[in-house]
Automatic annotation (TrEMBL):
EC number(s) reported in the record: 2.7.1.-
Recorded catalytic activity of this chain's protein: D-glucose + ATP = D-glucose 6-phosphate + ADP + H(+); D-fructose + ATP = D-fructose 6-phosphate + ADP + H(+); a D-hexose + ATP = a D-hexose 6-phosphate + ADP + H(+); D-mannose + ATP = D-mannose 6-phosphate + ADP + H(+)
Pathway: Carbohydrate degradation; glycolysis; D-glyceraldehyde 3-phosphate and glycerone phosphate from D-glucose: step 1/4; Carbohydrate metabolism; hexose metabolism
Keyword tags: ATP-binding, Glycolysis, Kinase, Nucleotide-binding, Transferase
Protein's job: Catalyzes the phosphorylation of various hexoses to hexose 6-phosphate.
Name under which the protein is recorded: Phosphotransferase
The species this protein was found in: Folsomia candida (Springtail)
Hexokinase N-terminal domain: residues covered: 27-220
GO BP of this protein: glucose metabolic process; glycolytic process; intracellular glucose homeostasis
One GO MF term attached to the UniProt entry: ATP binding
SUPFAM superfamilies on file: Actin-like ATPase domain
Source species taxonomy: Eukaryota, Metazoa, Ecdysozoa, Arthropoda, Hexapoda
Amino acid sequence: MSPNAESKEIENIPGLEKVDPVKVEKYEKLTNPLKLNDETMLKIRKIFEDEMDLGLQVNPKGCLQMANTYIPQLPDGSEEGEYLALDLGGTNFRVLLLKLEHGKMADPIVKHFHVREDIRLGKGEAMFDFLASCIHQFLESNNMLSRKLPLGFTFSFPMYQKSLSCAHLVSWTKSFNCEGVVDQDVVKMLNDAIHRRGDLQVEVAAILNDTTGTLINGAYLDGTCSIGLILGTGSNACYLEKVERVKNWEGEKPSDIKEVIIDIEDGAFGDNGVIDFIKTEYDREVDNKSLLVNSFTFEKYFAGQYIGDIVRVILVKLAQEGIIFGGKLSTKLLTHQCFNASLLSSVEQDSIQMTTTNCRKICQDLDLEYDDEDIAILKHICYIVSDRAAKLVSITLASLLDRMDKPGLVTIAIDGSLYKHHPRLDALLKKYIAKFAPNRQFCLMLAEDGSGKGAGLTAAIAQRLRKSN
Ligand code: BGC
């Protein structure tokens, strides 16, 4: 990206100069709570840091799980062999075959499977049977049914790990809510499903979260990578923590390791009410309509599953107050999630390019009567919701950079649809991380498919660890 393009992304902030001042005054009153000033940001940062420390204790209290991943190493170039990788976290389940030779990865073979709603909300056992049947289909279509392959399982939900291959589900998030899985060892549930079939030889070598996969894949691409971030349907981050700070360790802590990856599960930041001072009426409404009410508070402020709906509920409120759309609502606008993250990105695209084509199409598709003032307000809302998202994510990343205190450059590997498709988020993140961590050198790197490639690499690291023990 050229430097000019980057500044355009930061500078073309939509204004309200052409909107009736009476409307602007009312609009600002209703949207001011979404704006976070420096004092509030510092307060959030302090709370985040305190919660991280609490989460690392023996009987973790607080809202951040700070899950120990038991991964004490990053790829070092010695990874070899063939690995299966599974990637479960959304409606699209993937099975991959990865080949590593002298630490280099060839293009993986990948197969996608749609996870229907009845599976996502049905019985746990049936869901794992479905995963096992997908593994079977994948291996059969690649003539590999008899192969005994180590498997890396990316399971993008909060889990409590007891080792690299034992993990209990803490809670479902996003669009999943299968019965009988919370508190269970998901590796065991997958292995049981594999054994129930009796026709597969695969064996789970490692389980990981998608943030962990992103960090591992990031480190494979760039040796300065120490943070993984997902900004997709859900959100979460992980980082390299000094081992002496990690008290939540099952079994004996190996004496020869210095760092371990900690999966923060920061989507749950604020579940204990500690940052309720930033919660607006719009956030409350989005939460009330979500699948798992009163949980995953932080994620609901900005992740892809929710960010569009925040815009929608603000639009509804403004229409009810007679500030936009001639005070009229449409059935579509009243429909939960009819305004998704990709529409927010299209509106932001219009703002950056100083056009209105996308905004007009969106209003037409939503059966809304609109004029130029409405378009200006719509653009402004999408900007302030995006700006708040960037500030909240940046404050956590700035805290991590300071906490890790690494000399020199730290690369933050990022994956996720929201980050990839939002035209301004990358520029805003850079701006705010630099503001909140002024003494740190950092760079953001898109590290695509950490959930797939990272799972294969983690399985390879698990093999290496096993051999060396
Ligand atoms: C889950 C995390 C995951 C994140 C990104 C969240 O809802 O709790 O475990 O890393 O989504 O997929």
